[in-house]
Amino acid sequence: MWLEEKSETMKLLPDNVTVLYFARDRVEPYVEIITVKDATRRRSLSSSEDKEAEDEPVRDTLPVLKHQSQLLDARHLERLAAHMPVKTQGSPWQLAFSVAVHGSSLKTLYRNMAGLDRPVLLVIRDMHKKVFGAFSSDPFRVSRFCYGTGETFLFSFSPDFQAYRWSGENSYFMSGTLESLQIGGGGGGFGLWLNADLYRGSSFSCPTFNNKSLSTQEDFNVLDLEVWTVQNI
What we know:
2 domains; two-stranded antiparallel sheet; 4 helices; 15 strands; globular
């Protein structure tokens, strides 16, 4: 860098000096001359502040449950929020179905979903106390063909959280009959499958999500089940 003196001659700045130039719209620009050591310290402080901001959880993006959940706590919600669509962040969620409240019936689950046009969150606890489920872009319903979008994903907890997003290999997101609900498929097994009484289920690796089995065992019994639906989107 060069600095112009009053004599209109040019002088080479020392190696330990740097020049910062500031300018804003409609504001007189000015020059600040500092040592290289100070410039390095400023960059270090700025990087530390950015790192702290990144590490701090963004609480206002977490789902807000309007009812008490038997399966989800703040830790679960924090992990799930990072994978949900932006349009759902910070929105209230209401309990649309629970086997503890509505009984073990897939028909009742479908009936409670009737008329909805919003994403839903299915959460299951198996007999081994493992929690897992699916975020669905569409409410569950009986259908002749597969439905849903690439926002759909599978997840599991315990011991660590794992989310399995759409692989792009097929579009077998969801399908439903009166006998069963299926999520993901294409490889001879469903990513998540539930029977008509919501008591028995299975989870296999499938091309739709390239997932591992969500449950403790591929075939499992349901201990508890909840379905939540997002509001205000």
